[in-house]
Write a structure and sequence with these properties.
By secondary structure, the protein is mainly alpha-helical. It is 60% helix and 4% strand. Helix 2 packs across helix 8, helix 8 crosses helix 9 and helix 11 crosses helix 12. The structure holds fe (ii) ion.
Length: 274
């Protein structure tokens, strides 16, 4: 083959490879942008849910951070961790279908009212059924109130029959609820909340998930524990107060700290105390 033809073939092949690489890059970029758009939409949606249910402000963001860390620790794939994060963001979306008179009732709920609230897992999972990307997410949302011993709802699933994502969300959701302030009670300290989780291990909660969660909290430096809610911070939000750095899991917690640093600064020193 003449050298010029050889060179021409080589140049053509190189050009084709460059074009292919550029197309792949564009495709990946597009997929990444779509994923980012999806997460932004989910975060916008969870903010709307938090407006309706004011006491959960910051709850979804904190739960998202934590489930991601636990999912990675359990060796889930990137896609599986993403699914758990999405499910953690949307797990209570069905509460939009529960009337205010029940959702915000200050007193004790009647049996019928409690049965209605329980339906939020069905409302939520049904609302997502048409989204193909959410095949696994739907199950996690539907089963986030199942108990490890089979005593939960809606289907009374037991142990590993419960989707792993739901078992992770159940632990983190309970911990965050206990360590958040409520209109009718003060928040539990992280130590009390962890003790309650330990009590529910094997009965309500997956022992492996609780075990990993406890280790995760123990491993993180005290300064990385959010002094407002006691959750591990992702290290992205920092406030310097009296020569010490404080880290927060969400914007809401950071703002709460800025308003009353003296109230929370001491709490961080003890942190999880473990
Ligand atoms: Fe729920």
């Amino acid at each position: 083959m003449p050298v010029t033809v050889h060179l021409f073939m080589y140049a053509l092949l190189t050009a084709l490879l460059i074009a292919l690489a550029a197309a792949l890059y564009r495709q990946r970029q597009f997929a990444r942008e779509r994923e980012e758009d999806l997460m932004s939409l989910l975060i916008a949606l969870s903010s709307l849910m938090e407006l309706r249910d004011a006491y959960t402000e910051g709850h979804c963001a904190r739960v998202r951070n934590l489930v991601a860390m636990i999912g990675e620790r359990l060796g889930l794939s990137k896609r599986q961790v993403e699914d758990v994060i999405i499910a953690a963001t949307l797990h209570d979306i069905g509460k939009l279908g529960v009337p205010d008179a029940i959702l915000h009732k200050p007193g004790r709920l009647t049996e019928d009212e409690f049965s209605f609230i329980k339906r939020h897992v069905i409302f939520g999972s049904s609302a997502l059924t048409s989204i193909h990307r959410f095949r696994d997410v739907i199950n996690m949302v539907k089963h986030h109130h199942e108990a490890y011993d089979g005593g939960g709802y809606p289907d009374g699933l037991k142990g590993e029959m419960i989707p792993l994502g739901s078992r992770i969300i159940a632990v983190i959701d309970a911990y965050d609820a206990m360590t958040s302030e409520r209109a009718y009670r003060h928040s539990y300290t992280p130590e009390m909340a962890m003790a309650i989780l330990a009590e529910g291990t094997g009965r309500q909660f997956d022992p492996e998930v609780v075990d990993i969660f406890v280790k995760l909290l123990k491993e993180r430096p005290v300064s990385a524990v959010d002094p407002v809610c006691g959750m591990p911070s992702d290290g992205l939000r920092r406030v310097r107060h009296e020569g010490k750095d404080y880290y927060f899991c969400s914007h809401a917690c950071m703002e709460a700290f800025k308003k009353e640093p003296a109230k929370y600064a001491g709490a961080s020193v003890s942190g999880m105390g473990m």
